[in-house]
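Dear colleague,

As promised, here are the two records you asked about, laid out in our usual form so they can be pasted straight into your sheet.

NAME FIELD: protein one
SEQUENCE, THEN STRUCTURE:
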Amino acid sequence: MSTSLGILAIILWGALALLGNLTKSIPAFQLLFMCFFISFLLLFIKRVLSKQALFTAPTLSLTQTVIGITGLFGFHFCYFMALKYAPLIEVSLIVYLWPLLLGVFVAKAASKLNAILGGLLGFIGIAFLISDGSGFSISTQYWLGYFFAASCALLWSSYSFMMSGFDNEVDDIGWLSLYVAALAFLAHIYFETTVISFTVNELLGVVLLGLGPVGGAFYLWDSALKRGNKTLLASLSFLTPLLSTIILVLAKQISFSWSVVFALAFVLVGAAISNVKPASNKNSEPI
């Protein structure tokens, strides 16, 4: 059950590109503020529905809170900065090293080689998908963008790994969302000009992002990492850009490409290899 929540989070992240198209005229940090504030409100909606006390102190320690804020806000900040200083294709490829890193972090010592091999296969599939088979080039003029993109991969994989070991309540994601919303608001004031007029589609996109890819998915991911099969989730995380492409094709935003099939095959084979248990290990991770 817990692993299923993580898979649902991955599916929600797959909808990010489509919903992002609805909100592309909203400044990035302003959008981040709005989405994470909705994510914070989800905490109270959950408590009202479950008839819990509306206000209880977070269970995260100060150190854990800093790690949570660094992961959630740091990832998005570095991603926006990476796009500012480097092309989208190269940024996307570097950012999607995070499932490979997470797979290595969570793998048992005897399974690390499988995690690396499986992760590399998944990454090859995603590289082919993002570049659409046309290849890509790395240029030193974009080094700052590459640095921010690599920081994204390290921050999100480290956040996911460390949060999986904390014994905090999943509700704490709501409080982290509030802190991230505040930081995003400050970044918006410093870097951007506020947009105050929105279309119906833009408002719908903001709400759906806050309920899903940039909000609700973080609650699901936190719960799944604490109780689910972390190795499998790391492997299946490579499905995110693949699902995003499929959703855009179904929505007729882009044309179908056989690179989708190629990437899917590599991701699934990589996931299978990553989850092969050593012969001496009879214990399996929870599903």
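NAME FIELD: protein two
SEQUENCE, THEN STRUCTURE:
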Amino acid sequence: MSGFAYRVSGGKAERVEIKQALASDADLIWVHLTTNNEHAQAWLVEEAKAPDYIVDALTATETRPRCDALGDGAFLNLRGRSSEETPTSEPLASVRIWATAGRVISVTRRSLVAVDDVVETIEGSKIRDPGDLIAEFASAITRNLDPEVADLGDTLDDCEADLDADKVFELRRHVTKVRVAAIGYRRFLAPQRAAIEKLAALPCDWLQDDDRLHLSAAADRAARMAEELESIRERAALMHEALTDLRAEQIDSRALIISIAAMIFLPLTFITGLYGMNVKGLPYAEAPWAFDAITAVCTVISAGIIIYFVRRHWFGHG
């Protein structure tokens, strides 16, 4: 079992072993587990005396952001940016938190960037109780996600600025990547806002007014990011349609050129094929000027067809 623990008394944080974390009283005891094996489950049951429902929630394989009240405690599941490579279907790593008066237990399956921020804050003596710790978790997670969402919008802005028929395939790859990322992020950010808001409204004694304000601010930021992601998704869909139209126009333009070439050479092919037959009786077959005459006729026909197409504005695509 891997992880770490902190014990906070009088505003001073002390890093301790996990096995010693629950041995004494303190203003705040934070135990963070970075594994999901049987040893962690056994510790949660035997040492932390966590209810079966909480153990299952802390060690579940599939999770989504939510908040549940349990007596004077609360279970919170949040999603944040991971330092590891994540699958497209789940671009954000989860952190499961069980908080009661004086105690917080958190579990992650993959590394979470926000954990390092929380550790830095608690070592700076800025966290004194469970409310401060959870509020810092929510703030750090939304704060780390904000630049990611902004980068998606900037990438889409660049694609819109570079909209060109010659870059259709490259732009479609970028737009598709942005759209998939936006959908993946929004899938978790929308319920995450509701979870944080629900936590801020719980009647827990260990949640102070300033903690609720910080949670409300984090929920507002999550809501803003969810709205931005919805906008990015819609813009990406419109961009994809525009690229499809450009591709269709490109194909139509090439088909038009091929059609014009075919129309020009179709009568010429007929004339040259007719006079290319190896049979007796072709008019002027023996005349020395016949070749020049046929060439001149083909030239006149080609020029006439081209002039006709120019007057019909076929070369102008409209």
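A couple of things worth noting about protein two: Residues 3 and 33 are 4 Å apart (CA to CA). The beta strands are 3-9, 12-16, 28-33, 66-70, 73-80, 93-100, 103-108.

Best,
R.
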